[in-house]
Design goal:
Blueprint (H helix, E strand, L loop, with lengths): L2 E6 L2 E6 L2 E3 L9 E3 L7 E4 L2 E3 L1 E3 L7 E5 L7 E2 L7 E3 L3 E11 L2 E14 L4 E5 L10 E7 L7 E7 L14 E5 L5 E9 L5 E3 L14 H5 L1 E4 L7 E7 L7 E6 L8 E7 L7 E6 L8 E6 L7 E6 L5 E3 L1 E6 L1
Parallel strand pairs: 5-12, 13-15
Antiparallel strand pairs: 1-2, 2-3, 4-7, 6-10, 8-9, 8-11, 11-12, 13-27, 14-15, 16-17, 17-20, 18-19, 19-26, 20-25, 21-24, 21-27, 22-23, 22-25
Length: 317
């Protein structure tokens, strides 16, 4: 009797006479993200990860559903560089096929995307201008709130001439003293003045520290009406940011309007704030996606007796 043995991958079929023993096998699907065996993989918003097929029984084609990733589907065996820019969990599915059939697996809530939580705080007029740049840790207790300790970014003297000048870019640190890869610079037209006449609580009980409430950049050229701009650079164009602004001027009846531009998702959005004796109020624009080159521009207009900006707070959403 003639015996014939056929091997297909790891599957062995044996034929003896007219009888075939053994059986072909369809794939048994499995996969992981970045080589991890965890039941859930947590990544930071804006991060790119790779997926790896670990299916057995020799699959020859693959169909991935990558949830909220970009791209969201793939037919490669091991998709790479999948970016997740939406917080929350998402399911991942893989269907693998060979000549004998197919198999599918969905891992529920497999990818957990969290915000990095980066926060930056910038005071737009340094009380001392002898260091370029410098960062100062301040502890204060806003009225009715818990005590805070943040690293504040103070603008260097290059930006604080009379009037403040363009051409200097300052690297920014997060409030926890880690690097951010973000920078700030003044762009044309320049601000007219750097003032120290903001309202102070004298007890560090304002929404921001007294040193921040006291010092500001000012757009005081009343005619013609125009906007003076600060440029934030190096931001992640796949993320959303909340931009919080504060202006303060002691004993001065004035409202400052701020405008977001720079090719962002919120271009042209304006918010206004009464700066008169202001120690507790801020205005914010949420959901700001930077331009494709990672830029957000914050403008300060001079429509109502000058425009004041003491602080910018940047939060990754």
């Amino acid at each position: 009797m003639v015996s014939l043995v056929l091997k297909y991958g790891n599957n062995i079929l044996q034929r003896s006479g007219n009888t075939m023993t053994g059986s072909p096998a369809s794939p048994v699907v499995n996969f992981n993200a970045s080589g991890l065996t965890d039941s859930q993989v947590t990544i930071t918003k804006g991060t790119s990860i790779n997926f790896y097929d670990t299916t057995t029984k020799n699959p020859t084609s693959w169909s991935w559903n990558l949830g909220t990733g970009n791209p969201s589907t793939s037919i490669t065996q091991n998709p790479t560089g999948i970016t997740y820019s939406t917080t929350g969990t998402t399911n991942i599915s893989l269907t693998a096929t060979n000549n004998w059939g197919s198999d599918s697996l969905t891992k529920i809530s497999y990818i957990n995307v969290i915000s990095s939580g980066k926060k930056l705080a910038i005071n737009l007029n340094a009380k001392s201008v002898d260091a370029i740049p410098y960062y100062t840790g301040i502890t204060w207790t806003p009225s009715g709130m818990s005590t805070r300790t943040w690293i504040w970014n103070y603008l260097p003297s290059d930006l604080l001439g009379s009037p403040p000048t363009t051409g200097c870019t300052m690297s920014l640190k997060c409030t926890d003293n880690t690097s951010s890869n973000y920078t700030i610079s003044i762009i044309n037209p320049v601000f007219d003045s750097a003032y120290d006449n903001g309202k102070s609580t004298t007890t560090n009980t304002g929404i921001y520290p007294d040193d921040v409430l006291k010092y500001s950049l000012v757009n005081t050229s009343f005619s013609p009406v125009h906007v003076e701009n600060l440029k934030l650079s190096g931001l992640n164009s796949l993320m959303n940011y909340k931009i919080t602004l504060l202006g303060s001027r002691g004993a001065w009846t004035s409202t400052t309007t701020y405008v977001i531009t720079g090719g962002t998702s919120k271009d042209g959005t304006t918010v206004s704030l009464s700066v008169n004796d202001n120690v507790m109020n801020t205005v914010s624009v949420s959901g700001v996606t930077p331009s494709s080159s990672g830029i957000i521009i914050v403008g300060v207009d001079n429509l109502d007796s000058g425009g004041y900006i003491n602080a910018i707070e940047i939060d990754e959403e």
